[in-house]
Specification:
- The protein is built from ten helices and no strands.
- The protein is an all-alpha fold.
- It folds into two domains: about 55 residues, Arc Repressor Mutant, subunit A (Orthogonal Bundle); about 140 residues, Tetracycline Repressor, domain 2, CATH 1.10.357.10.
- The model has no long low-confidence stretch (mean pLDDT about 90).
Length: about 200
């Protein structure tokens, strides 16, 4: 391995350490209460080291969002081969639930962590990561409409309702409100609740 290759690997390793520390502290203490100094102390380096890789705390959260949404989009590829658009829509919902339940900390960062929107706007764009995943849902809903489902229903409205329903189920569980059910029935019940949407959607 050349000196340049080794330096690049060390740079990527340090960047990963910083992001992991930021993720941990954002989730434990909240975005507002976490400082660059806190993150530096977590990895036992000076704050100046953080600034070699990220311009500020917003930049750190933005990078974490990009990572998390990248994982989500990869999981969505699992349903890409389903030819029937309605079946793909239902499978997409299951994949969303599975991702959230398997990656609660990522989901927390993506959708539940309280942080100013400016933290996700450091590139002077719309919340691009969220928009990309939402556009994928809209595309599948649009294909359903082309196949004869959801006639005369606004695409944007229906997509938002579907996302809200699935996000609501996830939030109930991640905010520990599903504890009204026994541990062994929590996730199966949430999946079954989503499955109840299938006949409702078919009848729209």
């Amino acid at each position: 391995m050349s000196v340049a290759d080794r330096k690049e690997r060390e740079k990527e390793e340090m960047k990963a350490r910083i992001l992991e520390a930021a993720r941990k502290l954002f989730l434990e203490n909240g975005f507002e209460k976490t400082s660059i100094r806190n993150i530096a102390e977590e990895i036992e380096y000076s704050p100046g080291t953080i600034y070699l890789y990220f311009k500020d705390k917003n930049d750190l959260l933005f990078a974490l969002h990009q990572q998390a949404f990248g994982v989500l989009m990869v999981s969505f590829m699992n349903v890409a081969t389903i030819s029937d658009p309605f079946e793909r829509l239902i499978a997409l919902g299951h994949e969303y639930l599975r991702f959230a339940f398997d990656n609660p900390e990522l989901y927390e960062l993506m959708f539940l962590l309280t942080a100013p929107i400016e933290a996700l706007d450091c590139c002077n764009e719309v919340w691009e990561d969220g928009r990309r995943s939402y556009d994928l849902l809209k595309m599948v809903v649009s294909e359903c409409q082309q196949a004869g489902y959801f006639k005369n229903i606004d695409l944007e409205d229906l997509s938002l309702i579907i996302w809200s329903a699935v996000h609501g189920l996830v939030s109930i569980h991640l905010r520990r409100r599903s504890m009204i059910f026994s541990e062994e029935e929590r996730l199966p019940r949430l999946y079954r609740a989503f499955d109840l949407l299938t006949p409702m959607l078919k009848n729209l």
